[in-house]
Amino acid sequence: MSKPIQGAQSFSRNINILQQIADASTAPTRAELLKHCGLTRPTLYRIIASLEAEGLIEATVDNRYRLGGKLVSLARQALAQNDVRKIAEPSLARLRDATGETVHLAIRTGEELVYIDKIESREVVRMASTVGTRVSFHSSSVGKAFLSALSPPHANRLIDQMTLSKITSFTTTDRATLQKTVKQARAAGFVCDNQENEIGIVCFGAAVCEGPNRPVASVSVSVPLFRLSEDPSRYSTPLLEAVNEISAQLEFTRLS
Question: What value, to the nearest 5°, has the Cα angle with vertex 121 and ends 117 and 123?
Fold first, then answer.
């Protein structure tokens, strides 16, 4: 049995508090953090003081907490250093131009995915998502596309472990149905999320891979329902061209 890593529990608690602050719709107070964190008051206050001293969080004038400037700077540096984001950017721009719709690039982070790039549609009506938005595997096209690029046993293990929350009234919450969708996406190379993650938005997603069963990211084209073409190939064809192009460049970069 491996020995626990010294300081791991403290680090995990710090990350949990940062995540709570990041996820809150409005900057939380100490009392609101205390209600949900499961820590004692002295422990929470020590963590807040430590995070504030490092510039990772900052207090507002009314004693609420938001992410600090140092964390924002680190996030920007992480995005700038992300190879797949840099390599994918020209292909994403061409995909946006080919479809006329908003394009996202997402990578896995734990049990979710996070958008690391977004190229807006030039249309007046656009998506409200932002870089840094986290989405679930089961409700999003990027998530299901990522699952479809894994080996079937690996994908099924992840599906068995997931909490299939109902994000909208259209969200798939049945494991067998999700497994069937992933299997179909594996054969087709892309998957469609029909308002499962956001009402009024249909997304087409496909995975970027470094090799067989090795997805590193997913790309999606997001279309408002009222603009949706009856021909899905209008989105799937340029989408597949884009992910194949990005995958080939990643493979070349890795081998060179």
Answer: 160
